[in-house]
Write a structure and sequence with these properties.
By secondary structure, the protein is α+β, with helices and mostly antiparallel strands. It has a domain of 43 residues: Defensin A-like, CATH 3.30.30.10. A three-stranded antiparallel sheet has the order 1-3-2. A hairpin with a 5-residue loop joins strand 2 and strand 3. Helices cover 45% and strands 14% of the residues. Pfam families: Gamma-thionin. It is found in: Secreted. One of its GO terms (biological process) is response to other organism. This is Drosomycin.
């Protein structure tokens, strides 16, 4: 009985956590052009801030992702 309760509780907590993360997800920049390498981090962040986002970062796939979408 305790194991079932722990499984249900962990599932509910995971749904709450994932729901909270979804509201602050990253989105692809609409204005950034070209590849986004580590040395382009400031350019990506500045463009994302001009788009009204909180910040931005370059991904391993060389794309500029804005934070706070």
């Amino acid at each position: 009985m305790q194991i079932k309760f722990l499984i249900v509780l962990s599932a509910v907590l995971m749904l709450i956590f994932l729901g909270a993360e979804e509201s602050h997800a990253d989105c692809l920049s609409g204005r950034y052009r070209g590849s986004c390498a580590v040395w382009h981090r400031k350019k990506c962040r500045d463009i994302c801030q001009r788009e009204g986002r909180t910040s931005g970062h370059c991904s391993p796939s060389l794309k500029c992702w804005c934070e706070g979408c």
